[in-house]
Design brief:
108 residues; 4 helices; elongated; transmembrane helix; membrane
């Protein structure tokens, strides 16, 4: 039986995958963020998702025997990152379709 625990890279991938949820905290507390802060937060969320996905793939596709705990955390992280990526693509498609219907250019 494999008793090894999760690797630090798999744990970091899961934590980085959950960090975009922190963007909801200011809204729940009633804070209003400036446009610059929201833009920076958006860029940071994209970076968190990409780095989390890369770390999870390194653990998942790695040739070393890192144990089932690490593979499970990596699988959860990949599923979470896939959800974030589908959500981003859906929101971009919605913005594009809305811009097309209103007659305004999309990239201005």
């Amino acid at each position: 039986m494999d008793t090894r625990s999760a690797s630090p890279l798999a744990t970091a991938a899961l934590i980085l995958g959950l960090l975009p949820l922190a963007a909801l905290i200011p809204g729940m507390l009633g804070f209003s963020l400036t446009d610059e802060v929201r833009f920076g937060w958006m860029i940071a969320n994209f970076a968190f998702i990409i780095v989390s996905f890369a770390c999870a793939l390194v653990v998942k596709l790695g040739t070393d025997n890192c144990g089932t705990g690490a593979k499970t955390l990596a699988s959860v992280s990949v599923i979470l990152d896939a959800f974030w990526l589908m959500l981003i693509i859906g929101l971009l498609a919605l913005a594009f379709m809305s811009a097309l219907q209103s007659g305004r250019p999309f990239f201005v």
